Amino acid sequence: MEELPLITILTPVYNGESCLRNCIESVINQSYKNWVYVIIDNQSTDKTKEIAQSYADNDSRIVIKKTPNFITSVQNHNFSLQQVAPDSKYIKIVHADDWIFPECIEKMVEIGENFPRVGLIGSYRLDGKNVGHNGLPHPSETTSGKEIGRGVFLAKYELFGNPTSTMFRRAAISRDRDFFNENNIHYDTEACFQVLSEWDFGFVHQVLTKTTRHEGSITSKIDNLNTRFLGSLTCLYHFGEKFFSQEELTRLKKRYRATYYHRYAKGILKHYNADMVKYHKNERKKIGLKISRLRVLLNIVGIIIETLIDEKKWKKKLFKHPPLSQEFE
């Protein structure tokens, strides 16, 4: 075990009483044994601390830390990185409402050790009942960071997921400032682009992690604010020059802006609320993106017309035959 690189596993948590046991036990049951597991309690008001302590009392590799005061989720991720063991070679974040399969750490470390230029390692993940992450042909285990970055921006790959889905080489994480951008709700995706601008990407062709979605999670907030494409657009503005030539980037930004109008219009029709509008306004301001209200309105009208036409086609096709209840009498 002493010859294996040390891994620090981090679980930043707030009020994780309902799910924390499954998360902790998934770590304890790893086939890879040389790890330190730090659980960072963000001033929980339920039994989170007691549950974590019950495991720490029986396993010296488990350490409990507490934030000095309540902080945001992304701030807790940065605070967690400050707790990494000094001699750790890799960092694995596991969210309290997620868990990892028994071979997760072993398989990811194997990729990292076989390919020293790999700074970010991913795998297939179980997202609810669906298997997520696609694009990389089997059996490719490593790809240049530039190719992955380009592929993600061009919608060729879907590989990052949330922090539970990935592992970082510690040397690839910036130490001169907070690694996760506390002003971006998609801080995890931004961090991946940041690493891939200088390091390669490794991938394990197995389902190694499980992501759980529930009301009140960051994922739910992202859905309610309709932020996904805006997050991609923001990352393109921040990191696009690392992956594309200036001519390519100009063309791609134009395409992204056109798509953003359509996605924003759909969001208004589906999720309209003051928080969503305010969020989008603030995020556009950060990257200097000005939009035309008329163009948003035209996209809204276009979506409504498109929906009505599709509905008419659907009804026409449906009523070519008598209702099933009559047909099978």
Give the key terms.
2 domains; 10-stranded mixed β-sheet; alpha/beta; 10 strands; globular; 46% helix; Spore Coat Polysaccharide Biosynthesis Protein SpsA, Chain A; 329 residues
Provide an overview of this structure:
It is a single chain. By secondary structure, the protein is an alpha/beta fold. The chain folds into two domains: 7-220, Spore Coat Polysaccharide Biosynthesis Protein SpsA, Chain A, CATH 3.90.550.10; 226-318, no CATH class. The chain has helices spanning 20-28, 48-56, 73-81, 104-114, 145-153, 187-196, 218-225, 228-243, 246-271, 274-287, 293-318, 324-327; strands spanning 7-13, 35-41, 62-66, 90-93, 99-100, 118-127, 130-132, 142-143, 167-169, 200-211. Strands 1, 2, 3, 4, 5, 6, 7, 8, 9 and 10 form a ten-stranded mixed β-sheet that branches. Strand 6 and strand 7 form a beta hairpin. The model is unreliable at 324-329 (pLDDT under 50).
Topology, element by element:
Blueprint: E1 7-13, H1 20-28, E2 35-41, H2 48-56, E3 62-66, H3 73-81, E4 90-93, E5 99-100, H4 104-114, E6 118-127, E7 130-132, E8 142-143, H5 145-153, E9 167-169, H6 187-196, E10 200-211, H7 218-225, H8 228-243, H9 246-271, H10 274-287, H11 293-318, H12 324-327
Parallel strand pairs: 1-2, 1-4, 2-3, 6-10
Antiparallel strand pairs: 4-9, 5-10, 6-7, 6-9, 8-10
Helix pairs in contact: 5-8, 6-8, 8-9, 8-10, 9-11
